Every structure is written in structure tokens, then in C-alpha cells.
Amino acid sequence: MKLGVFMVLFGGRSLEEALDYVASQGLDAVEIGTGGNPGDKHCKPDELLENDTALKNFKKAVESRGLTISALSCHGNPLHPQKHLAQADHETFLKTVRLAEKLEVPVVNTFSGCPGDHEDAKYPNWPVAPWPNDFQEVLKWQWENKIIPYWTETGKFAADHHVKIGLELHGGFSVHTPATLLRLREAAGEVIGANLDPSHMWWQGIDPVQAVQILGREGAIHHFHAKDTTIDPVNVNKYGLTDMQEYTKMLDRAWQFRTVGYGHDVKTWADIISALRLVGYDYVVSIEHEDGLMSVEEGFTKAVHNLRQVLIEEPLSEMWWV
């Protein structure tokens, strides 16, 4: 298993400066944003797709530092009911897939998106309760008319370009749990898999180890994010896990994102990494930093330190008793 980082963390640095810093920390891989919510600070798909020299130089910049690209990421909402917003995210995704093929990057990460509740809706609608029955009707309409048709067609496009899709299981989007990921995967094909982030499991009340096992048994983990979450035992009783307060209200929120090891201890992270190994995941663990209590450098270096403690275990095949 390799250690990497989501480069959006270093958006204040040039590509070369960011790569130099990542390499100096001894990491193996980088995940690079190509638009949408991650932005395209380090990677402009239009420029690289249209200019072979620029593409070659981009690839050389990464490889010359002993790094690989674990994934290209363009998280957005291609199912947004406002068609111009959906179209922009859809086009970014298609360009990212084509670029991933040219760069020989095996995974493109994004969100599943979330539709509205009817054709003329203006905003996404994320049903999270089975009653009143209106929510069940909305959910059925979304999956049958929007989610499955879109990802079946888009999944085929990705597969034709030899790229897997890593959907981040994230609240506010239609695919947000292991069950919803597997539902879409069954309908749209094995090109669909998870970009699994434990931080989003914890705040939904899902044990990441169990999520790894559920998805891993189906070969449905295409990429993995390393980010932590802490849940405040007092505030959660006031606001619940679906706390709608802004992330900046850290003292009052029910939960908040932390760097690895500052929401759950190293033993918990060791259990997650062990579960990944057990289900055959042998790819990149990509650090994502959204910790409001730490600077970029502090959060990143602490995550690297804590993850190295659990990534140095030898595979079973190399143990002396095997």
C-alpha cells in the first residue's frame, strides 16, 4: 500500500513547488484536482488535452520526483437540476476521464451528484427519511429517472477509456453509504466503485472497518481517502449527526473533520488499514486535510506521521511463519 496526498491541500503553491514538498516528505503518490469543487490549480484538462508537449511535461514533473498519480478528481454535481450547472460538471468529468486515459491514471474521483425532486426543480433534494411517503416517491423518481440512467451511460464512457470511477460517499449526495454505492454498482457496472473516506462514515454513524469489509468483498473500493472526524458528545445531543451549522462554528458543531489520529486513535486507523489489506486493497491511501484547528503543514505532517505507523506492517506473504 502506498501513501499519497490530495494536492488541493497545496493550492497556494505551484505544481512544481507542491510536488517538491510532497516528495521531500517521502510520499509515493499524488491525487490531483481537475476542476469542480477541488479546482484545477495544478491541472488544466483543456490545456493538457490539446497540447502533447504540455501533457508530456506535466507527466514528467510528477514522475521525475518519484511520484505517481493515484487519481484525478473533479468532485461536482452532474445531476444538478439546474442544467447549466449539471452540464459544466458533466463536461469536466468527461475531460478528466480522457485526460486520465492519456496519463495512464486508473481512477477518476467525483461525487454521484444529487438530482432535484422533479424535472423542473431548481435545487437538489436529498431524502434521508422513509416517511412521510413523499420522500420515498422522490427517491424512487431520482434513482429510476436520473441516477441510474446517468451513471450507466457515463460509466460506459469511463470503461471505454480504461478508467474506473471512484464515487466519494458523501452526505448530501445520492451515493453516500456502502448500500447506495452497491445499488448503483449493481445497476451501472463494476466501473463504479468507492473513493472511500472514513470521515464521512463516522459522522453518518457507520463503522469504517465494516464499510471497508462490505465494499471490499465486492471489489468495490477504487480509491481511499485518509481523513478523520471527531464527534462532540454534548453537541451531538443538541444538533444530531445531520448538524446543519457551518463548519466554521467548530465550538458548537456536533462533529468536525480532523487530521488523521485527532478524531480516532492510531489503533483505530490500524484496524482500518488492516481491513483494507484483508479485502485485497493494495493501492493508495490519499491524505485529505480539512482540519480547521491545524495549519496545512501541521495537519499534513501529523497525518503522514500517524499513517506511517500503521502502513509499515509487513504483508502476510512476507512473514517468517508463512
Outline of the structure:
It is built from eleven helices and ten strands. It has 322 residues and is an alpha/beta fold. The strands form two sheets. Strands 1-2-3-4-5-6-7-10 form an eight-stranded parallel beta barrel, surrounded by five helices. A two-stranded antiparallel sheet has the order 8-9.
Structure description:
An 8-stranded parallel barrel has the order 1-2-3-4-5-6-7-10, surrounded by 5 helices. A two-stranded antiparallel sheet has the order 8-9. Helix 1 (15-24) links the parallel strand 1 (2-6) and strand 2. The chain contains 11 helices and 10 strands. The protein is α/β, with parallel strands linked by helices and 322 residues long. The longest helix has 27 residues, at 134-160. Residues 19-301 form the Xylose isomerase-like TIM barrel domain. Keywords: Isomerase.
Instruction: Name the overall outline.
Output: globular
Oligomeric status: single chain
Q: Percent of residues in beta strands?
A: 5-15%
Q: What share of the residues lie within helices?
A: 40-55%
Q: Whole-number average pLDDT? A: 96
- Largest sheet, described in full? 8 strands, parallel, barrel
Task: State the end-to-end distance.
Answer: 20 Å
* DSSP helical segment count: 11
Measured on Cα atoms, how large is the radius of gyration? Answer: 19 Å
Low-confidence stretches: 316-322
Order of helices and strands: EHEHHEHEHEHEHHEEHEHEH
Number of E strands: 10
What is the topology, as strand order, of the major beta sheet? Answer: 1-2-3-4-5-6-7-10
Structural class determined from secondary elements: alpha/beta
